[in-house]
Write a structure and sequence with these properties.
The protein is α/β, with parallel strands linked by helices and 271 residues long. The protein is built from 8 helices and 14 strands. The chain has an 8-stranded mixed beta sheet with strand order 2-1-13-12-11-10-8-9. It is globular, with a radius of gyration of 20 Å.
């Protein structure tokens, strides 16, 4: 049975009280899909049902049409990196099933270059975007009203209920920009692109608020943008917390009313 959760330490804030507690977050790990020994894509996922994930991905990306096109799907043994155990799936296709790997890689959103264990993934991103040198601190009360203010900037969501959103706040709490998109990562990219076009990049001293959870991809994008804090109404993943701790970022989760949890660099919260 794959472990689906990981234990982390967080700061639980309720009104004026703050208490350090242990918490459980959902695990997030990369999974490399290989075809005939050649890497095709790396997906971020919660471990478990990896064979189903690989098959579903191959069908939805039109690599195969049915199980008749697949001889076997299994975890790759004897990986060079022991930390990558269970993070690679080997798919053997049936004779006669031809795949243009180069064309597939060009069309896939996933990338096979980020590493296939959590540690390697973090090492790679930190080589490109080093840990933050940012002294920003924020009181808990700074965050209380942010979700309501973001909701007021989501006109399409209010009509459809079908979009994610991201918003950027400065150190004074001013809402600078909010963007909606069907993909939460796209919404974050739109916010970063807005800042870039207006000469406000990098974004030291700012806070990013996202709808939904804080995944590794969102934490990675925030680090590249040099954001010291990412907040959300839901939970962070284990890999997002790991990246936050190593990079000097704070993740504010379960932001609801006057309660919130702080993960990663908890000292960014001023009590």
């Amino acid at each position: 049975m794959h472990e689906r959760t990981a234990g982390v330490t967080m700061l639980r804030c309720e009104d004026a009280r703050a208490v350090a507690r242990e918490d459980a977050v959902v695990r997030e790990e990369p999974l490399e899909i290989r075809l005939g020994g050649a890497p095709l894509a790396v997906l971020m996922r919660t471990p478990g049902e990896d064979e189903e994930l690989a098959l579903g991905f191959l069908v939805s990306e039109r690599v195969v049409r049915s199980t008749d096109d697949v001889v076997s799907v299994r975890h790759s043994p004897q990986l060079a990196d022991p930390d990558a155990e269970d993070n690679a799936i080997q798919v053997v296709l049936a004779a006669g099933v031809e795949v243009d790997l180069d064309a597939l890689r060009r069309n896939l959103y996933a990338s096979a270059s980020c590493g296939i264990c959590g540690k390697a993934t973090l090492d790679n991103v930190l080589r490109e975007a080093p840990a933050l040198d940012d002294a920003s601190r924020f009181p808990a009360a700074f965050f209380y009203d942010l979700p309501r203010r973001l909701a007021g900037e989501q006109p399409v969501f209010s009509r459809t209920g079908g979009l994610h959103a991201a918003a950027l706040f400065d150190a004074d709490g001013s809402l600078l920009v909010a963007r909606e998109d069907v993909g939460r990562h796209n919404a974050v990219d739109k916010v970063i692109g807005w800042a870039l076009r207006r000469g406000r990049f990098p974004l030291g001293g700012h806070v990013l608020l996202v709808s939904g959870r804080i995944s590794y991809e969102i934490a990675q994008k925030a680090l590249v943008a040099r954001l010291p804090v990412v907040a959300a109404v839901s939970a962070p993943t284990s890999l997002a917390v790991d990246l936050a701790e190593r990079s000097g970022m704070a993740l504010v989760g379960f932001l609801r009313g006057t309660t919130l949890n702080v993960y990663g660099r908890r000292e960014r919260l001023v009590r």
